[in-house]
Prior knowledge:
81% helix; 155 residues; mainly alpha
Amino acid sequence: MTLYDLARGLHILAVIAWMAGLLFLPRLYAYDAEQAEKAGPLRSEMRKLLRIWQRRLLKIILNPAMGVSWGLGLWLLWIRSGGGADWSFVPRPWMVAKLAGAIALSGWHGYLSAEYRRIQAGTSARTGRFWRMTNEIPFLIAIVMVLSVTLEWGA
């Protein structure tokens, strides 16, 4: 086992946690939006519970997993470059796709975080249908990222 193998394994685990959160949080938002469309004390209690889950998922899983994913990803770049000696792999199509995907996932994460604040403030205009339709965006991005790296397209 090399240091690169260890970093890669830890990176994969962090990304799995991040992806799980990115896939689950929009589902919680969908449930929250649907509860808002209905009235009653049970609905109000359910929304309170959903808000607790949203906060915990975002603060305890999503944010740390994104930070660890980025940190380990940058460390992998450094190791692969030979400690900064050879960055020639970075402009290759497979690495550009990987980095663009990481930036896109980070942008989606930022959007979900901003939406969390809007939901908490009661200003969110998104429907359950919107969240169900956009729920798979992170997975589609991940497909491109994983295939580009494992196949090293354009290497």
